[in-house]
Amino acid sequence: xxxxxxxxxxxxxxxxxLEASGWDLLNPRQIQFELNMANGRADYLLRDSLGxxxxxxxxxxxxxxxxDAKEQARGYAxxxxxxxxxxxxxxxxxxxNYQRADQQDAYRIERLPCREDLExxxxxxxxxxxxxxxxxxxxDYLRAIVPDxxxxxxxxxxxxxxxxxxxxxxxxxxxxxxxxxxKTILCAALIRxxxxxxxxxxVLFIVDRIELAKQTMEDFNxxxxxxxxxxYKTARRTGELLGSxxxxxxxxxxxxxxxxxxxxxxxxxxxxxxxxxxxSIYGDAREAVQFFQATRVGLTATxxxxxxxxxxxxxxxxxxxxxxxRQLRDTYHYFGCEPGHPTFRYDIIDAVKDxxxxxxxxxxxxxxxxxxxxxxxxxxGWAVMISEQQESYKIQDLERKILHLxxxxxxxxxxxxxxxxxxxxxxxxxxxxxxxxxxxxxxxRS
Length: 446
Hints:
By secondary structure, the protein is of the alpha/beta class. It has 18 helices and 15 strands. Helix 4 (153-167) runs parallel beside helix 5 (183-196) and helix 12 crosses helix 13.
């Protein structure tokens, strides 16, 4: 049968997607095209290393929704005893592990699985995971590992929300929690929850700075020690990566020379956690994050909301490109949430008013002005001669484009005078700064 132009074009896109995931289109022991059967024609058959059919891939024209071919593909897969189904129009892909009782429907993926991914998933099907909610999480969930560590009520509630959604088929979650509410401990409990119920075999925890990776490693080494957590940057050189179930990586180390493509497959990780998700899912980093076809959990205290209070229907009709740009930048949208509504929220007000707390205190503002900051607030800005040329800086430029140590010391002294009863070694935990260059040496010595 002659293919229509649009379906032929979809086939080209699908071929490229298969090649990008490591499939050899010219090897009939990997891929077979168009098998006619009694109930129709299967477009692609993907085979395992022994030549057995692993997956049926049903192709649709570019303008059609491939999800609609789900039952058609299921008929082919059942006849061929293939455990997996892929649906694609070249632009949009759906994956269905239809033999699993807990996966009654197909779900969207951004990249096609490679042969190794499908073979690993087939082995996992021999011992299916338990529903997350069958693992009871109480305040003493981690007590056997760390005797003095108890989960707080809101942390348990966050875990319950994820478990409820996951068992119902949801694969993206966003936790919006204030700084200082124990997100790392919560993540350790979450990862343990997934690993113990076999809903994950490998977990990737993404941070945006190596300092955060080291801090996370300290906690994970205690709480998740039996799962051999490693930092990706060093483990890839020592060979420890292969034996680890929990990998902590900076987004920069994954992106260097596009290592994530060379050293991992799209389905290598079952759970990916994005710390500081408002920063690690944008720009070039987005490609690395989207490469992994896993359950995604985002953590942030300050999500970016570009779709809140927007008439999406009107914007789609009047300016679809603007809508697309907003969707790409919106943290809620990326993690499958409605605008402004995360999976779970626990902000600073919640932490202050929590009847079992308070777990945080409200910040107090100290008005600290200098001649420089006063001038920088004016329309003309703060004028200064640099290399015999006059430069002008606005308030937002201070500590970014220009560093003035006297202003920093003035602010530090003002804080110290207001809180002279606080021991000096504790001030580093109370003050935040633009960079480490600004900090301790400007504080008065006690």
